[in-house]
Amino acid sequence: MIPDFSSLKEKERFFQGLTDEQKIEALNDMISASEHIVFLGGAGVSTESGIPDFRSKDGLYHRKDKKFCAYRPEYLLSYDCLHKKPAVFFDYFRKNLDCRTIMPNDAHYKLAEMELKGKLDGVITQNIDGLHQKAGSKKVSEIHGSALRSYCVSCRTEYGPDFIFENTEEIPHCPNCGKMVRPDVTLYGELLPQNDYEQAVAWIRYADLLIIGGTSLEVGSAAQLAHIYHGKYLVIINKGKTKMEGKADLVFHDSIGKIMNQIRV
Asked: Which among 18, 107, 216, 218 has the fewest CB atoms less than 10 Å away?
């Protein structure tokens, strides 16, 4: 069991002195003792399902495609590109962000199990692939939207996961009013979806354990949410370095599926 600490320094010394095996036991002790657990995840949660992240050397932004080499990667997923060069936007989106056949991995399934057993208040995800829901999670805040939803920019009619990807039009149009149908994702230059963001803030402010996984916290939205947290325990699971590691009680530089699979609920 994790002891009560008389100071932050004593707490730091305790966690820093743990072996890898003891860190897993400490993680399970935290989960057992916590009543309001929240998971904040990024692209690294889905890489083990075969979806590339964005910024790593093998990520989406480093793919060499002559068709798109004239544009910055961020521009191709921006509000400006959607409205000024929609044909380019939809070509890039269809080729790179079709996640309909991708399956969840161990991390997704463990989080769904934690929720089912009453040990997880919610998942906050930067990912747009819908894998948390496919694994069974119900309480998911998608702060960057979802590639599996789309809507008309004029009449706001909503469409399912196949509408954009199966559409034979260069720029998909609404059957009802004829205006453009766009993916329900948060593009560069757009505000985050208000309801999802407010739900994420509410979960984090009430949490006594925050698990951050598969993100370097380089994206402002995730970093802002992480800084809101002032609960009892902070855990980070990410193969690479992550901002805020100095504030975390436990840090695992390992496969997120491997670590999550060792959680007992």
From this structure: 218
Residues of the chain by 3-state class (helix, strand, coil), percent to 5: 40, 15, 45
Sign of CA dihedral 4, 5, 10, 12: positive
Find all residues with CB under 8 Å of 6, minimum gap 6, and list them.
none
Let me know if residue 8 belongs to a domain. yes
d(CA 54, CA 211): 21
Range of the domain at 30: 1-51+103-144+192-265
In a domain, 166, yes or no: no
Task: Say if 186 falls within a structural domain.
Answer: no
**What is the total count of domains within the chain?**
1
Give the pLDDT of residue 55: 60
User: Structure pTM?
Assistant: 0.93
* 108 catalytic per annotation: no
Catalytic residue among 108, 144, 227, 230: 144
